[in-house]
Amino acid sequence: MPIDVVAAAIVEDRRLLLVSKRQAPEIFYLPGGKREAGEDDLACLHRELDEELGVAAVDAVPWCDVVAPAALEPGQQLRMRVFLARLEGRPSPAGELARLHWWQRTDSLRLAPAIEHHVIPALTAAGLIG
């Protein structure tokens, strides 16, 4: 059974907002997380962005669904619903997050498989990042 999560692709100035968790600060992901009982995708997204970054999602729209190997759970698959959104507020890592980074193509960060092999190619193909 795949790990089911909701995440936000936040692009500003052709850079993508990525975060890392305290349990694995060297691996970067999209901000987001797992739904709580009875929570729909947008409610989850809003809660996660508030808890992890202290910001609100604005104009969040479903963009793509990704299935990829989970970065921290060997042998597990990740199923991620990705929303394109803007942020209200200035993001600052909190909760389980270690860092945030505005990624651009010249950066050499270790990216989660879903980000490296699915999200970044799709954002590039859509002309949102370069």
Number of domain modules: 1
Classified in CATH, the superfamily is Nucleoside Triphosphate Pyrophosphohydrolase
Shape descriptor reads globular
How confident overall, as mean pLDDT? 95
The residue fraction in helices comes out at: 10-25%
First-residue to last-residue Cα separation: 34 Å
Largest sheet: 8 strands, mixed
CATH topology: Nucleoside Triphosphate Pyrophosphohydrolase
Low-pLDDT segments: none
- CATH top level is Alpha Beta
Secondary-structure content class: alpha+beta
Catalytic activity: 8-oxo-dGTP + H2O = 8-oxo-dGMP + diphosphate + H(+)
InterPro entries: MutT-like, NUDIX_hydrolase-like_dom_sf, NUDIX_hydrolase_CS, NUDIX_hydrolase_dom
Enzyme class: hydrolase
EC number: 3.6.1.55
Task: State the main characteristics.
130 residues; alpha+beta; Nucleoside Triphosphate Pyrophosphohydrolase; 8-stranded mixed sheet; 2 helices; 8 strands; globular
Brief synopsis:
Belongs to the Nudix hydrolase family. With 130 residues, the chain is an alpha+beta fold.
Can you describe this structure?
This protein is α+β, with helices and mostly antiparallel strands and 130 residues long. It has a single domain, classed as Alpha-Beta Complex (Nucleoside Triphosphate Pyrophosphohydrolase), CATH 3.90.79. 20% of the residues lie in helices and 47% in strands. It contains two helices and eight strands, in the order E-E-E-E-H-E-E-E-E-H. Strands 1, 2, 3, 4, 5, 6, 7 and 8 form an eight-stranded mixed β-sheet that branches. It is globular and about 40 Å long. The model has no long low-confidence stretch (mean pLDDT 95). Belongs to the Nudix hydrolase family. Keywords: DNA damage, DNA repair, DNA replication, Hydrolase, Magnesium, Metal-binding, Mutator protein. GO terms for molecular function: 8-oxo-7,8-dihydrodeoxyguanosine triphosphate pyrophosphatase activity; 8-oxo-7,8-dihydroguanosine triphosphate pyrophosphatase activity; 8-oxo-dGDP phosphatase activity; 8-oxo-GDP phosphatase activity; metal ion binding. This is 8-oxo-dGTP diphosphatase. Its EC number is 3.6.1.55.
